[in-house]
Design goal:
Number of helices: 8
Structural class: alpha+beta
Number of strands: 4
Strand order of the largest sheet: 2-1-3-4
Strand content: 15-25%
Helix content: 55-70%
CATH class of the largest domain: Mainly Alpha
CATH topology of the largest domain: Peroxidase, domain 1
Number of domains: 2
Radius of gyration: 21 Å
CATH architecture of the largest domain: Orthogonal Bundle
Length: 183
């Protein structure tokens, strides 16, 4: 809970800085944060270093400085990372990046979702699902597609914090419950 509050606070601060420069700057900051977050996730020991209270802030700043030299980033993102180091908040970087991405999606009117099906869908079917869902929505929709043979058939749609389960597995579970209750 605490880490979410911290992540939201810092993500909003960087997002507000980007608002002063415009949506293009916000997108650029988002891409830079994504690149750094991917790097952090590939190197879990790095996060452990940032979490360690024994390691001094100066050492953490030196580490982040060396990382930023290898990654192309704007001065604003560099300053933001150093500020996180000064406040001993680098361990929350991935959470900050994720919340920043949500803020950017909201600003651009995007909604992200995931479609899970039992079989791989061809491009035509994916486009059909995407277009149908986007027509029903007021916002632009970005969908990721996954397969999960355990759902047997149908699909599961996850959009934002909502889940629509139209899978055969869910229908069978519902039927089983109805039979148990004698309906």
């Amino acid at each position: 809970m605490r880490q979410q509050i911290i992540a939201k606070r810092y993500a909003r601060a960087l997002f507000a800085l980007g608002q002063e420069e415009g949506i293009e700057a916000q997108r650029k900051f988002g891409l830079e944060l994504n690149d750094l977050a991917e790097l952090f996730q590939q190197l879990p020991k790095l996060i452990n270093i940032f979490k360690n209270p024994v390691i001094r802030v100066e050492h953490k700043k030196e580490i982040i400085r060396q990382i930023l030299e290898k990654v192309d980033s704007s001065q604003t993102v560099r300053n933001f990372c150093f500020y996180l180091a000064d406040k001993d908040r680098l361990e929350f970087f991935v959470d900050i990046q994720q919340y920043y991405s949500k803020l950017l999606d909201q600003a651009e009117g995007l909604v992200r979702g995931k479609v899970v099906t039992a079989i791989e869908l061809d491009k035509g079917k994916r486009d059909q699902i995407h277009n149908q869902l986007e027509n029903q929505s007021v916002q632009k929709l970005i969908l990721d597609y996954e397969t999960d043979k355990d759902i047997l058939g149908g699909l599961i749609l996850k959009v934002g914090d909502k889940i629509y389960d139209a899978s055969l597995q869910a229908q069978l579970a519902l039927m089983k419950e109805n039979i148990k209750r004698g309906e």
